[in-house]
Amino acid sequence: MSTVLSSVPSAATSDADAVERIRHLVGGEARPGASGRTAPVFNPATGRRTGELPLASSEEVDEAVAAAATAFEEWRRVSVARRTKLMFAYRNQVAEHAREIAKRLTAEHGKVLADAMGEVARGLENIEYACGLAEHLKGTYNEQASTGVDVYSVRRPLGVVAGITPFNFPAMVPLWMFPNAIACGNTFVLKPSPRDPGAASFIAELFHEAGFPPGVLNVVHGDHVAVNRLLEHPAVQAISFVGSTPVARHVYETATAHGKRVQALGGAKNHMVVLPDADIDLAADSAVSAAYGSAGERCMAISVAVAVGDSADPLVEAIRARMEKLRIGPGDDPASEMGPLITAEHRDRVADYVRQGAEAGARVVVDGRRAQFDGDGFFLGVTLLDHVTPDMTVYRDEIFGPVLCVVRADTYHDAVELLSDNPWGNGAAIFTRDGGAARQFQEDADAGMIGLNVPIPVPVGYHSFGGWKESAFGAHAIYGPEGVHFYTKPKVMTTRWPDPAGSRVDLGFPTNR
Ligand code: NAD
Q1: Rounded mean pLDDT of 253-267?
Q2: Residues 209 and 327 in one domain
Q3: Which residue of 41, 117, 134, 222 shows the fewest CB atoms closer than 10 Å?
Q4: Ligand 1 centre and the CA of 16: distance in Å?
């Protein structure tokens, strides 16, 4: 196996000081960085620097795109049968190495192993969907559209496509993209998050182990320099982006200005509406797992609970009681239910939001800043803010940490209006026992993914994922059927052949009918 992740001790004096030198993957070859720029990678549970990441120059990005462009000329012609076999082999590689991938996720992102295993499982769904490429790429056919005229359409690959991914799902989000793109006949350049790049490098290595030709999947590590080159590169046909809203907007505007097809998924502020008739235990369990799971660093995390009418006091109390029992610690400790945040700076930023909420008049029911932790990890306790109002920064901004805001609403209509006024529209959930109210919410909620008594309604791999409003720019949702459409362009053939009566070939039957 080519070692994209070769563990090379740097100027290490002991094993504890060893840092992993992460490499680019270009044309099937693991390459050290040539730009002279690097970034550190940390284990957030210990605060220790564990890796060194090369930050690609524009020229290094050009090399990766060139490798993908060369590979495309052959890959586009590889049969559907062969592509399917390779994708099945990749599916098995990822399934067999699930635990190893999960351990890398925990080591660099900090999420607990159970969450990391869940991330791998959700990523696998997308590879499994891509395994059905023979079905997804079937064209359409209309016989006798006009007399003697048949019309049919096929979907063709675009060419080289690029994916730019965020830190919070370092394996799953790349798997939202490249399996479908490559199954459709494209070649791919992946630019993972610089904060936790190890899992993406590892799943790319497994991809080559599965037997895919060199250059079909390339990985360049880097920051805005690499991203901006991909957005402008004339040979890149399409960009899939997942990250924060300001960067998603920049990606969308720049890449479309350069003539590319773009899907750019952004940030979120997901609301969970709790009606007075809801099962409060179910709602509280859901709120705690959806707000604090993965330290709140999920784009589908619940960050606002909208308590309608009489539900507010029992809901706040039920959530508070559960928070006391939450075990926060290193992700590789099986007893931990929540790990650290991604960086020390981000932890401090989240803690400062708690301060701002308190100063603005929110009631701090549980203050995560009070929690004590040993060592230098980037840990923060969980926070519950009650009586939050829409003018507060804790309501307006995406905090992306373990902070849950409770907004009290008098009626269902007030709750729905709150959702409509919110600039984001990723997910929204309602908790109720009333089927009529739930059905009405499906229609009223101004968001792309809706949960009915389900707090995190991430669609399965054979549907598609996409928010509305400031949570997504571009026309297509990501993965599933919309992903296949995004990564292909239609070609339509209109055909006419001579009437059989005029045929010069002996067809073996009377043709003068
Ligand atoms: P981010 O926007 O900081 O980074 C995402 C990617 O963009 C990274 O690869 C990064 O290197 C690159 N990037 C960052 N700044 C850039 C710049 N100025 N110019 C060009 N490229 C740049 O996001 P993050 O902090 O890694 O991830 C968290 C964010 O992602 C949250 O806002 C979260 O809601 C969002 N997210 C959204 C979804 C979704 O499906 N909508 C899924 C996961 C995460």
Answers
A1: 98
A2: no
A3: 134
A4: 30
Domain assignment of residue 22, yes or no: yes
CB atoms near residue 360 (< 10 Å): 15
CATH number of the domain that residue 386 is part of = 3.40.309.10
Give yes or no for residue 11 having a pLDDT over 50: no
41, 168, 233, 470: residue to mutate for ligand 1 pocket, most atoms within 8 A of CB: 168
The predicted pLDDT at position 499 comes to 73
Task: Please indicate, yes or no, whether residues 289 and 206 belong to a single structural domain of this protein.
Answer: no
- Asked if 266 and 470 touch (Cβ cutoff 8 Å), the reply is yes
Q: Is pTM beyond 0.90 here? A: yes
Residue 487 tokens, joined: 């990564």
167 lines ligand 1 (CB under 6 A): yes
Residue 195 DSSP symbol: S
Residues 6+ apart with CB under 8 A from 485: 155, 476
Find out whether the beta carbon of 268 lies less than 6 Å from any atom of ligand 1.
Answer: yes
CA 22/CA 6 separation, integer angstroms = 7
Class of residue 77 by CB neighbours under 10 A (exposed 0-12, middle 13-18, buried 19+): exposed
Residue owning the nearest CA to atom 38 of ligand 1: 299
**∠ CA 79-85-87 to the nearest 5 degrees?**
100
For residues 142 and 84, state if they share a domain.
yes
- What was the pLDDT predicted at 18? 83
Distance CA 409, CA 40 (A): 45
